[in-house]
Design goal:
heterodimer, A: 592 residues, mainly alpha, Sodium/glucose cotransporter, two-stranded antiparallel sheet, 70% helix, globular, disordered C terminus, B: 83 residues
Chain lengths: 592, 83
């Protein structure tokens, strides 16, 4: 059987499962549609959250980022997991206790204001739409590559699948589908990693293999040898820090706070039966996420090592130390066809020279007759997908990776679309503009707004306003600077009032948008950026990606000052805050 | 102090302890103290690198479960547990 046939069968089977689940678990009430009837077991909810959280970016791009960034990529690893600690302790249990459907609903009630609710809806829609654009693009890439159709057709297929199970099933369908998707994606991610870890170190557990000795007879540790070859080839040492400590720190912080502020993640904790379950469910979500996130550093390092050793076959600098282009392996040829891997024979010796650049190394390279790095393009995103091919794994493993990538992109897109549609139908229509509608009509509007959201996201996915990474960074920065602070203050401060919350949200989201647009262009339109995007022009050396942390800080400060200058919240709001802080009013208080 | 306030105070103390540990392993060991810790090795891992790319995530998971378990205990102790 060919690789193409195997891929069709495996991807087709997984789709059949997802759609079957959607039919079985279709939503009958608004409660089913928004919060799965609040009946999801915490472990299962944790698994669904993990699938919701891990997008095509986590599955496909992250290990590639780690492979080329080395140590510095820890900002993504710690940032995207550490936020769950904040969620478990500062938001999830209390929001579950509050017991409503959406994040803006909490903000509207806690700050006794429709304007606060509408402001929250706007922040939520901006974050979710920017995030979903990246997902739609990921879906398009994954479908077009593995079904061998063009990008637009791939994107339409993906939109169709999301439409069927998200619109029909609502949260209930999405939750159960996501559980299946988690299983597919984690299996697809770890199987090749285990194979490769075993090949390189004899230890099948990737997390341990990364700290183990190599079995190539050199007697060196994997990371030690990787550092050596990186330095020998003029790259920076793998385990060394390359960015400034300040930016690693700030980016980690922004991503953590952003993670805890993303509405589609927070919403998941409304679906569990009890407050206690919300705490444990966050823990389970992080367990399931960490399986992938602790494997990724091993995948990254092994991929980098395999790539360098494939090309640098002998001693660095010896005339025959580099791979002959004519002898390149088949995965190399395959990826060249996609244009994501490119070679140019700059010195005309028919061999591949792949190396970095620094003052001392450039002189040596010139003396060896090297005329510049000949791997003119090595796209980071191919690493996870190419890994099983590099390691010569069987067809079914490669097909599985395809199914895993698609599962990751679909599950995240569905969760985001639900967050968008619920905030439109529940918060804007039912809550503000069309108060009289009944449950059936609300459900219908929910489905209509989700359909519209899919079409809008698909259109923007076809014409993305910037690189996926920029868009994703914006989504996190926006969530960190707008949603997290008001939720936190709403729970931890009894005196935070309406004016403070609105001023805080507007300051946070406004300053973050402004800072990003200053360096990335107004609304990401190329060429409109007033300032060049490099370290010497950044305010206090802050990378626009990391600005969410500053935006969040401004939000807290402004909200605090405004709240001090205006009247404190009414009595019943202070009781509401006391009420959400405890899972249940104490036994003796209700007098039994 | 009412029962609810006492419970909330316990919750805050526990949360602060957890968040201090959260901060120390990630921002402390993984970022600020990276260089000194990298002189120590854990198998093939420089220790600071291990905290940044592996260890802090394990600690995060443990922290959440410890917090959840302790809070379940407090829920019972203060009689605010859901049925």
């Amino acid at each position: 059987m060919t690789l193409r046939m195997t891929t069709y069968i495996i991807v087709g089977l997984t789709f059949a499962v997802y759609i079957g689940i959607a039919f079985w678990a279709r939503a009958k009430s608004t409660s089913d549609f928004y919060v799965a009837g609040k009946g999801v077991h915490p472990v299962l909810n944790g698994m669904a959250t993990a699938a919701d959280w891990m997008s095509a970016a986590s599955f496909i791009s992250m290990a590639g980022l780690i492979a080329f960034m080395g140590y510095d990529a820890c900002a993504y690893l710690m940032g995207w997991t550490g936020g769950y600690v904040l969620l478990a302790m500062m938001l999830a249990p209390y929001l579950r206790k509050f017991g409503k459907f959406t994040v803006p609903e909490f903000i509207g009630d806690r700050y006794y204001s429709q304007s606060a609710r509408i402001t929250a809806v706007i922040c939520l829609i901006i974050c979710s739409i920017t995030y979903v654009i990246g997902q739609m693009k990921g879906i398009g890439v994954a479908f077009s590559r593995f079904l061998e159709v063009d990008f637009a057709t791939g994107l339409f297929c993906g939109m169709g699948i999301v439409f069927i199970y998200a619109v029909m099933g609502g949260m209930k369908g999405i939750t159960y589908t996501q559980i299946a998707q988690y299983c597919v994606l984690i299996f697809a991610y770890t199987v090749p990693a285990i194979f490769i870890a075993f090949q390189l170190t004899g230890n099948p557990i990737p997390q341990l293999a990364l700290g183990s000795h190599l079995t190539d007879g050199s007697g060196m540790y994997l990371l030690e040898k990787l550092n050596k070859i990186c330095i020998d080839l003029g790259f920076a040492s793998y385990t060394a820090q390359k960015w400034s400590t300040w930016n690693v720190f700030l980016l980690t912080f922004s991503l953590m706070v952003g993670t805890a502020g993303l509405p589609h993640v927070i919403m998941r904790f409304f679906t569990v039966p009890k407050v206690r379950d919300a705490r444990y469910s966050t823990g389970w979500a992080l367990v399931f996420i960490s399986v992938l996130y602790t494997t990724a550093p091993a995948v990254g390092a092994m991929a980098r090592s395999n790539l360098l050793h494939t090309i640098q076959t002998g001693p660095v600098g010896s005339p025959t130390g580099n791979l002959l282009y004519a002898d390149r392996p088949s995965w190399f040829t395959n990826w060249e066809k996609t244009g994501l891997l490119k070679w140019e024979d700059k010195n005309g010796d028919g061999r591949i020279q792949y190396y970095g650049s620094n003052a001392a190394f450039d002189k040596k390279a010139e003396a060896w007759g090297w005329r510049g790095n000949e791997m003119v393009k090595v796209d980071r995103d191919i690493m996870v997908l190419a890994n099983p091919e590099i390691a010569n794994l069987p067809f079914w493993v490669i097909a599985l990776v395809a199914a895993g990538g698609i599962a990751a992109a679909l599950s995240t897109a569905a969760g985001l679309l639900l967050a968008i549609s619920s905030s439109i139908s529940h918060d804007l229509l039912k809550g503000v503009f069309m108060k009289g509608i009944n449950e059936k009509q609300e459900l219908m509007y929910g489905r209509i707004s989700m359909t519209v959201a899919i079409i809008v996201a698909g259109y923007l996915g076809l014409h993305p306003p910037g690189f996926a990474a920029q868009v994703v960074a914006l989504a996190f920065g926006l969530a960190a600077s707008s949603i997290f602070p008001v939720l936190m203050m709403g729970i931890f401060s009894k005196t935070m009032n309406r004016a403070g919350a609105i001023a805080g949200m507007l300051t946070g989201i406004g300053s973050t948008l402004l800072y990003i647009f200053l360096y990335k262009g107004w609304f990401f339109i190329p060429g409109t950026a007033p300032l060049p995007d490099n370290a010497s022009h950044w305010l206090l050396g802050i990378n626009p990606q990391s600005f969410g942390a500053v935006g969040a800080l401004l939000n807290f400060v402004v909200a605090g000052l405004v709240a001090k200058a205006t009247s404190s919240p009414p009595e019943h709001i202070q009781h509401l805050v006391e009420d959400i802080r405890v899972p249940k009013v104490a036994g003796f208080a209700v007098g039994h | 102090m009412t029962n609810g306030e006492a419970y909330w105070k316990k919750n805050l103390n526990l949360m602060i302890v957890c968040l201090i540990i959260w901060f120390v392993v990630s921002f402390g060991f993984g970022i600020l103290l990276l260089q000194p810790l990298n002189n120590i090795h854990l198998g093939g891992y420089p220790l600071g690198f291990w905290f940044a790319q592996q260890g802090s995530m394990y600690v995060f998971v443990v922290l959440i479960f410890v917090y959840a378990a302790k809070m379940t205990k407090y829920d019972k102790e203060f009689d605010v547990e859901e049925d």
